[in-house]
């Protein structure tokens, strides 16, 4: 009871240490200041019945873009619920920061406890939750989606361990629900973290199974079972993952892998892992970046302690000439495997690994090599926990664990923003005209590829109705005003428009909607062909007379297939959960 109380106190200290600056009133300046706009757009999509949400009506300078087809829907879905419930935008964003911290901490604790016990579990939780790079993501870069992706990682490994240690020979080992749901959270929070971590998670559990059980049929069966759970998670996330991959060539996504964002400008140097160099600037070529890639003093001390313990074990075996025992020492093999995984992840962030980036497909979309620190952090935390668990004397284990905890806690100083804004309206815009005119230029990556660059500069005259930087009129649906087109807007939703027109002659109507695969135009309920105007928006020829012209965002074959896969995967998940519910009912 006393031990549980102490652990609870330590967890509270970790949590406060990573969130203390969030309780001060006001929002703060971040590199990515579009969170409020994304939450607002997600809320609008959900309220208007656009599900799964893909289209953002106000980004793209009011012409719209398929934002949530490509960018991390889950954090903004949760944020939109907070915002819809009446929580102001400041706390809707801060709650997302807080959730990422709480879930990361509990996941780190569960994972550490599963492998090493209570005290070491607290050290793992502290090492991961208070890692300086997490502070960089939250309070410098504003990489909310990456923080949510990271929070799923300890839970993924925890689920894998539960499956690995379950002796049930049937399908549905203990922990499969934890694994599948945490994988889905990662996939829907940050697809780049998914790209990086999935191979490492499989290497992690593969190494664990081989070290613990050797290479045999049972291990092979477990691996096949685990791959089945990964496929189920991919299926559940397909509505997002498949279109994001298959339709990326229809948007200006090339901007995120070129110029400043090309990976060649952001490689790290080994020394950057070892000094704080704290700052709120940006990343660039060379070792003098504007923000830090520090691994943390406490984390590095824990790694050094693990290295010392490993060296002592090695020397002791050599002194006693127990070579065979050394080669079969599972604890030493395990920490060695963790070190290999951590070093591999860190290596991929270094300039020395550029040849890999130049060779492997898709890796360029990771953009910033330093993102591999996210993967390395969890293995570093597990190495720290291993060091504490290896102390056989209980008093020494508790004392050293507490000491390492306190050193790690010093990283709390990094968990603060550079400065607070005097008003959320300085950056955190939620109104349609603000998103169209003031935020769209910050996030142009997913504007449909055929859209003219003229929309970035914007204009307002007889041929148009918008201004890119200033006040917009989000109620306007049709662009061509010069011919005195008579129309009435009947439906004006982000993914659906319906207008009544009275035409004295055949007329070409330009809608203020970026043309993108899936948009469908109907005249009097009949689907008609439409064209792409020179500006890149939807254009349709309508005959003279009174007509109802509708435009709505439909499904492409890719999206339809992806949605069906997700729906079928959900049915499979529900079916697989039935045995669990039945067993629980019998116990009751």
SSE string, helix = H, strand = E? HHHHHHHHHHHHHHHHHHHHEEEEEEEEH
Return the average pLDDT rounded to an integer: 90
Radius of gyration: 27 Å
Helical content class = 40-55%
The total count of strands amounts to: 8
Widest sheet: strand order? 1-2-8-4-5
- DSSP strand (E) fraction? 5-15%
Number of helices: 21
Give the CA-CA distance, first to last residue: 27 Å
Q: Please, how many domains? A: 2
Q: Which stretches of 5+ consecutive residues score pLDDT under 50? A: 460-466, 468-472, 584-588
Global outline: elongated
Summarize this structure as a short list of keywords or feature phrases.
disordered C terminus; alpha+beta; 2 domains; 588 residues; 8 strands; 21 helices; 8% strand; Immunoglobulin-like
Structural commentary:
This protein has 588 residues and is an alpha+beta fold. The protein folds into 2 domains: 2-51 and 62-416, no CATH class; 450-554, Immunoglobulin-like (Sandwich), CATH 2.60.40. Helix content is 53%, strand content 8%. It contains 21 helices and 8 strands. A 5-stranded antiparallel β-sheet has the order 1-2-8-4-5, with no helix packed on it. Helix 11 packs across helix 21 (557-587) and helix 15 packs antiparallel against helix 17 (372-389).
């Amino acid at each position: 009871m006393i031990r549980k109380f102490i652990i609870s106190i330590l967890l509270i200290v970790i949590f406060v240490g990573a969130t203390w600056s969030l309780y001060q009133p006001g929002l703060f300046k971040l590199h990515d200041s579009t969170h409020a706009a994304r939450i607002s757009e997600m809320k609008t999509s959900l309220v208007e019945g656009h599900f799964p949400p893909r289209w953002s009506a106000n980004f793209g300078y009011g012409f719209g873009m398929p934002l949530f087809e490509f960018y991390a829907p889950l954090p903004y879905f949760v944020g939109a619920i907070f915002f819809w419930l009446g929580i102001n935008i400041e706390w809707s964003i801060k709650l997302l920061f807080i959730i990422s911290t709480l879930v990361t901490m509990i996941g780190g604790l569960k994972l550490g406890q599963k492998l090493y016990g209570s005290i070491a579990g607290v050290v793992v939780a502290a090492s991961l939750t208070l890692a300086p790079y997490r502070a960089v993501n939250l309070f410098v870069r504003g990489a909310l989606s990456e923080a949510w992706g990271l929070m799923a990682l300890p839970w993924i490994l925890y689920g894998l361990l539960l499956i690995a240690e379950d002796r049930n020979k049937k399908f549905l080992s203990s922990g499969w629900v934890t694994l599948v749901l945490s994988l889905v959270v990662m996939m829907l929070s940050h697809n780049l973290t998914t790209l990086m971590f999935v191979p490492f998670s499989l290497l992690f559990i593969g190494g664990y199974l081989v070290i613990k059980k050797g290479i045999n049929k049972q291990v092979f069966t477990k691996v096949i079972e685990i791959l089945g759970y990964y496929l189920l998670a991919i299926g559940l996330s397909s509505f997002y993952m498949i279109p994001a991959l298959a339709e990326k060539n229809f948007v200006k996504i090339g901007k995120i892998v070129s110029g400043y964002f090309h990976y060649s400008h952001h490689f790290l140097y080994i020394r950057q892992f070892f000094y704080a160099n704290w700052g709120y600037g940006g990343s660039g070529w060379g070792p003098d970046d504007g923000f830090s890639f520090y691994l943390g003093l406490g984390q590095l001390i824990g790694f050094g302690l693990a290295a010392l313990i490993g060296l002592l074990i090695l020397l002791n075996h050599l002194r006693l000439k127990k070579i065979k025992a050394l080669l079969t020492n599972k604890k030493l093999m395990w920490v060695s495997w963790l070190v290999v995984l951590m070093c591999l992840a860190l290596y991929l962030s270094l300039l020395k690994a550029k040849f890999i980036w130049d060779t492997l497909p898709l890796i360029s979309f990771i953009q910033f090599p330093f993102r591999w620190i996210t993967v390395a952090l969890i293995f570093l935390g597990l190495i720290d926990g291993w060091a504490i668990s290896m102390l056989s004397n209980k008093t020494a284990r508790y004392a050293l664990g507490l000491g390492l905890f306190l050193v790690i806690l010093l990283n709390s100083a990094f968990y603060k923003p550079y400065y607070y804004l005097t008003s959320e309206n300085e950056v955190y815009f939620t109104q349609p005209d603000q998103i169209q005119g003031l935020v769209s230029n910050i996030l142009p990556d997913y504007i449909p590829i055929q859209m003219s660059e003229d929309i970035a500069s914007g204009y307002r005259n007889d041929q148009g109705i918008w201004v890119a930087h200033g006040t917009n009129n989000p109620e306007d649906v049709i662009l061509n005003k010069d011919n005195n087109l008579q129309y009435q807007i009947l439906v004006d939703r982000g993914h659906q428009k319906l207008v009544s027109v009275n035409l004295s002659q055949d007329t070409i109507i330009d809608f203020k909607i970026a043309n993108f695969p899936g948009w469908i135009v109907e005249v009097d309920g009949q689907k008609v062909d439409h064209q792409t105007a020179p500006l890149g928006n939807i254009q349709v020829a309508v005959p003279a007379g009174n007509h109802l012209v509708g435009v709505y965002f439909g499904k492409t074959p890719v999206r339809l297939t992806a949605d069906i896969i997700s729906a079928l995967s959900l049915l499979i998940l529900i079916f697989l959960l039935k045995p669990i519910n039945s067993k629980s009912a019998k116990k009751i």
